[in-house]
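Hi support team,

I'm opening this ticket because the web form for multi-chain structure prediction keeps timing out on my end. I have pasted the exact lines I submitted so you can reproduce it. The total is 625 residues across two entries, so I didn't expect it to be a heavy job. Is there a limit I'm missing, or should I split the entries? Thanks in advance, R.K.
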Amino acid sequence: MGDTATVEVDNLQKRYGEFEAVRGISFDVAPGETFGFLGPNGAGKSTTISMLCTLLTPTGGSARVAGFDVVQNPLGVRRRIGLVFQDPTLDEYLTAYENLHFHAELYRVPKDRATERIQVVLEMVGLWERRTSLVRTFSGGMKRRLEIARGLLHSPRVLFLDEPTVGLDPQTRVHIWDYIQGLRDREDITIFLTTHYMDEAEFCDRIAIIDNGEIVVMDTPDALKAAVGKDRIEVRTEDDDATVRALREQFRIEASTTSEGLVFHVAAGEEFVPRLFAELGVGIKAVSIARPTLDDVFMRYTGRTIRDAEASTAEKLMNNPMVRARRGR
Amino acid sequence: MTAPTTARTSGDDYQYAPVIDLHEGATWLDDLRAARVVWRREIIRFSRNRIRIITSLAQPILFLFVLGTGLGTVVKTSGSFDFRTFMFPGVIAMTILFTAIFSAVSIVWDREFGFLREMLVAPVRRGAIMIGKCAGGATVATLQGLIMLVLAGLVHVPYSPVMIGKLVVMMVITATMLTAFGLFLAARIQEIESFQVVMQLFVLPIFFLAGAVFPIAKLPGWLATLTRFDPLSYAVDPMRRTVFEAVHAPASVTRTLSPGMSWFGWRLPTLLELAIAVIVAGLLLGGAVYQFTRKE
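Hello R.K., no limit was hit. The queue was backed up. Here is the completed structure from your submission:
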């Protein structure tokens, strides 16, 4: 029982008429894991999250969240999940505290615990001092933090974050991620998030790259990057020519000379560098390792960059009236 | 069904352990709790919006004192009977009508601004949310009606406790019926613009056909028939009867200005009229819940 996956998805599908938004995806998320859905806008991320949160009925396949089937027992699922949507869902004419109190009542948090719990989550996102302010006076980042606090109020097993930082400035994005990171340390919780920011996907234990309603690849960020290719290593040495010769003879590596110094590619760069120091025999002044980025990973599996993918998907969506009518609400 | 979601056992940092008793299935008490907090939200929002309170009283006051005074100069009433006394219950109904519909629109705004999602994903039956919304809108509309009731003295209506008591009950019924009607229309509307169109189509006809501003005694047949299909007629008439009783209106005045609702020449008793209003309210609320519960 204890090892059951928190989220189990089996061949899940959603179609709108001719348009297949999600084409039979399967994956499991383990308890305590932070799992990310990475893909361009319109790839099916939000549709999947909506089905897992019981807001949309799948047209095929099945999904269980926190042990409950999303179709058979939607209320059982809803009790155990917290949600932070892409678009704000706060009542701006209520105070921060009133928004949370509303939530506590709807989620049946026992009255004696609600007050204490509201304080805990508000303090956690640094909004306790502002609890009596109307939400309309909050900045975008404060609103998002309040929504995260609200999503956690009823101690969910799974927290769903749909594009948690979209539309926020870079500094606020960093803040939000600090909270999410801290959350993983403090709460015993599984996090399921979607993003189309590559750098955010790095925070996940595992990511699934989704494109055109299908999972194209799923693994840890490191494994994905390792699978894509070798690390890029730059060295500056006391004698570049000697280094090139040594690399060729001792390590069978071809290095090229650039304005930055010598550049070459190896698998598992961080394991290679200590050997380099030990065995090269030439003084090394500086070393840097650049890992392949998730952009490279996305490129490798979809054949285009995420930016291009967004452009073409947006076009496709605009031409489909069924989808257009359903998006955004 | 077994849930692999028992409380965690690790002892350290227990501050964030689950606080919820995970009993299955919402009981009616849970639904009541959800409905109550939705109701409370409506009241809080209303009480914070002073401008709304004032502006929604401006129109009825204009009707009562400007239109009422003006019409009073041309309408023949026997003796010293003030035409505005006749208008008074109609104007209260009008206040309730516009406030109730305005409250019902809030569900479209909730959709527009996203807060509806917060309610829709909660582990409660949607019916409970709808009932809370209806109770909230009805309370707000009744409160606005009560504020209008304060003006009674200005149009020669005495502050009789019996009359006020009866009127309050009738106002609650009227407000519930009209809020339910608004919610029924608004439940599936996605854009605020379409709601405005729908409202134009329904609200003014409902208002005019209810005999709120003119007596329905001598209307031509087709119009008299239409008034009988307007549910608001069955709420305005009892209120007017109550006011006329309280001012001891002469029989001749009552005959022309407050002839009451009749079916095939049979004068409906007050209680039956109110029962009709209650039934219509129930049907509309049921319809609104149904509309709202259907899966998208």
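A quick check on our side: The interface with chain A takes residues 1-5, 8, 10, 13, 15-22, 24-26, 30, 33-34, 36-37, 41, 44-45, 48-49, 111, 113-124, 190, 295-296 of chain B (CB under 8 Å). Let us know if the file doesn't open in your viewer.
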